Batch of 3 targets.
Target 1
Amino acid sequence: MPEEFGAGLLRVDLGPGVVAGFTTRHGGVSPAPWSSLDLGTSTGDDPARVQENRARLAAWVDAPVAFATQVHGDGVLALGPDDRDAWSAEHPPLSAGEADALVTDEDGLGLGVLVADCVPVLLADPVARVAGVAHAGRAGLAAGVVLRALDALLERGARAEDVRAAVGPSVCGRCYEVPEDLRASVSAVVPQAWATTDTGTPALDLAGGVLAQLAARGVVAEHVDRCTRTDADLFSHRRATAEGTTTGRQAGVVVLA
Ligand SMILES: [Zn+2]
């Protein structure tokens, strides 16, 4: 099981010289309903608090962490030395641009992916020294965003047999109820995502789908199998919506240290 470090980061092992993990909602400065480590910029939270929360994450992983503006697509953005400088500045940007995956071969530049039920995926080849993150919700899973991120690593010299992956906390297949036609359309592309809720209604297992996509490419992933919908230590968009409120965003992060 991942151990917690920093105030709220679940560490995963992606190999030597790679720092990687998933944040929980703990360890930040935001008040309810974002309490407390809200790393998102589309949540209604005060950007100054989000920047402080991001600065804490950067301190825990000992590197600046870049984030994209995620749009439920399959776009991959490659970051380099100029981005490390920009995100190391006293006033870093809020976004590196629109994308649902980031890749880099730059040491000391963290890549972050924001979620609150969707699946955060971390990738690294500790031999070729390339890393990536991907955001896979229902649309991203079907569009293959995780595979686009993996392809981007391979284009930068990674080998599938050396790539290590981690799939972080997300809403589980027993909780993620969807209309029947949505289950049908997503499972037509990714059969392993087909699921049923505890009450017998149609559902999707997004993490199961991502794990199957990676396995089909020969990549074995560690799964931090915690459900955001039912785990009070994690942000859940669905839980917040059901309660008539909003919530924050947690992150997956990977750094070539
Ligand atoms: Zn669940």
Note: Confidence is low (pLDDT under 50) at residues 1-5.
Target 2
Amino acid sequence: MHLLRVQVPEFRALKNVDIEFEKDFIPKVFPLGSQNGGGKSTLLQLIFVLLHCSSHPDRLPFLNNLLAQVSIPEGESHKVLAKMDIWDGEKVVSMEFLCCNDTFLESLKSNGTATIGDISFASPFREKPLTEKQSQTSGKISQSTNEMNNLKVITEMTEVQKSDIMGKKTLLEEQLKLLNAELEVTKQEISVVRSMVESLMEFLRVEKLHYITGSSNAEKQPLLCRIVGMEVSETKSFLSKLADKIFLAAPSTQVYLFLSPDNRKLLFKAGTVDNYGTALKESKTKLPGFFTYNITSTEVITKSFIVARDQDFAERVNTGRYSGDHYQQVLNEMKQLLATGKKILPQLNPKDNTVEGVRFTTEDGTELYPENLSHGELKRLGICVWSRKIENAIVLMDEVENAFHPDWQYQIVLDLTEWGPTNQYILATHSYELCRALTPAHVKDLEPKLLPVR
Ligand SMILES: Nc1ncnc2c1ncn2[C@@H]1O[C@H](COP(=O)(O)OP(=O)(O)OP(=O)(O)O)[C@@H](O)[C@H]1O
Ligand SMILES: [Mg+2]
């Protein structure tokens, strides 16, 4: 996959963004520059969330958090959030993401392509309260029925007791009648709403518009996606394929627009940075394409040793030959990634020999643990392990150069193309050294642009 072009008319700091990432440029690494606050992080997060979350129901809350920050200008029927052209390996796929209101439906209807009456973007939101009401009423019905069944008249009872029970029964019967009538009405309402939702989806299907999600803001403006020349079913399957081919790497001390407003605020509250870290960690369990540089570095390095060991073991089982090549390869690669003279070894649990971490040694034999490694070393190791697993994908990286010496800022471009040669990389950056590893045409700008080199 290759992002060829992204257009964002207006979203937060982004205004009239239109950037092309040429398919034939070698290497496929594109620095994205601007002054601070130019919207680089906003753009990367917008692309990532739209492409990574649109086809997975459990990722939609992240998309909704971002959409809550979008509003359609007064008097307008829709707002184009982003347009993207993607090269899928065979053809250019032109996609458009738009937020709409009911006026948009009216305007489509008046174009005459469909003739459906009572449809509204509010319909999908009407079903949930009704199904909740239905289950509450059903609960009350079974409770009253149980009470009825427990009311028994027995011969030993006095006449007063008997008439008291009969009175209660009559009351419960009345109650049950009302509840059943209420249940019937709710069921009918649900069926009406469902058929309205079906009509809405059918209408959108005819218009080749894929309904992704309703926004969580009060206006319930949904997000739709349209791909030129594709039916809705094809759009859905393309989005789902694309979701596995988009990645975002960024610092953990950054505000993420796809977190809930409360979680975003945690970053700024004294003593709650840990909680922000927890919120990020949780989001990563649902967003497999999301990576933060420093939190998982040692975990992913440790995991790479475990994977190599398992690959060696599988080779022994399958071929009868144990080479240890995978393990040796990881050792060699890791060694190259560290500052001169340092070596890396997996750390084994003495009880059962499981790999539980990594340790390092300096040239003079001093033993070091991950917490003793430098920020830049850990970051580079983490990126290496992470990017090696990614193939044929669009990889968005924010502030990749932070913590790197200028030599490594230059080097990271070469590293990425070696570690994941089939990927396209878009690197939000302030680093001239990084840009110098590429041609000036590779470097894309957002306003206000980086100042030219003096
Ligand atoms: N609703 C909004 N409308 C317009 N601008 C906004 C809105 N919310 C935030 N901003 C501005 O958007 C900018 C944030 O953009 P972003 O973080 O994407 O910039 P950046 O290019 O990544 O900057 P840096 O290089 O400092 O990381 C800030 O200047 C912020 O004030
Ligand atoms: Mg930024």
Note: The longest helix spans residues 159-206.
Target 3
Amino acid sequence: MRTFGFLIHPLSYDDVLRYEPKAAGKGMPLIKKILEWMPAYKVSHVTGVRSLTGEEIEGYFIAVPLLPEQFLDLPRADVMGRIIRGANIAAELGCGIVGLGGFTAVVGDGGPTVAENCPIAVTTGNTYTIAAAMQSLFRGATEMEIEVPQASAVVVGATGSIGSACAQILGNRAARVTLAARNATRLAKLAHAMQPHVSAKLEWTTDIGNALRHADLVLTATAATSSVVEPEDLKSGAVVCEVSLPHDVSRRVATERDDVLVTEGGNIRVPGSVNFNFDFGLPPGTSLACMAETMILTLENRFVNYSLGRGVNLDKVLEIERLAAKHGFELAGMQAFDKEVTPQMIARARERARAARAASRAAGVASS
Ligand SMILES: NC(=O)c1ccc[n+]([C@@H]2O[C@H](COP(=O)([O-])OP(=O)(O)OC[C@H]3O[C@@H](n4cnc5c(N)ncnc54)[C@H](OP(=O)(O)O)[C@@H]3O)[C@@H](O)[C@H]2O)c1
């Protein structure tokens, strides 16, 4: 049977306990130290991925057990060595391709160095993540009665691999798109290069809070290790599609803003009766889009370096969407803050946003 590998890592303290329940009660400094000593290892055998075509594949999850901030803070050569070791474990297990999950795709050059040092194909999974994120954002827009062609959008993490492709797609769907991140030089360069290829008016900013206050559509795809989207910054009625892992929408949004719709952008229902043999926090039968890309390529027998490095080919986004549909991969139900987003929650957000719009129109009439 054809086999894939996928590199995973804990995203938070709670996640470490999923990987190693015996860590409960140990403080963060000790846990970090222990993780620093731990090499990559096989976590689980994934079974039951069955395409609509009837074909079945299997896979392995391999942990590169570092927290996001450790991927960013430890010496680069050490971190890259651990990721390359993880990819080589996949090769030793007989996998034809290995997907780079979470920060294993963010650090360094986003894949090429791993591919050069591993005998099997490598993909970040970012191409299908972009497709899933856009589908998810537009599904949310429909639910919140947002007319995309008239809407203002913000992409937070716009200079990244996922963010820049999403910004370009949104640039031909929405009226205005603001590119947001921390580095002004990279933002200005991207806006200049992208503007001739999109119909929307493009702007850029490092003031993320201010950009969010005017946005109907928000897509977040940052490599931040703490919240960047705060409840006080969101426009009433906005849809926030969150791709980043760890999440960068503050958990306060869940309790303080019932007039906006937050949805995780990359959750995919896997065809067949998949058993991951590992709980990574999503409902049964649900994977991340980057994992799903690795599975789709395995079903297709496409053991090639598919998504690598920072630039993503938009033609491939259409291709992977087609292949996903062929094999029966589709967007999972909406989820945010580790919980299902129910139809009642969506209806409430829509009603609250309508009421806020009516109140602001009334205030406008009263003051004119
Ligand atoms: N859900 C899924 O299936 C899935 C799949 C793949 C990846 N992901 C996640 O998607 C995210 C983006 O991945 P990527 O490969 O596109 O990363 P990337 O290429 O490294 O881009 C990261 C972007 O975030 C910005 N950024 C970093 N820190 C920031 C901060 N503190 N505040 C604001 N912006 C910040 C960066 O620009 P500046 O440095 O200039 O700020 C850059 O624009 C990651 O969290 C990754 O784990 C999710």
Note: The domain at 128-266+334-367 is CATH 3.40.50.720 (Rossmann fold).
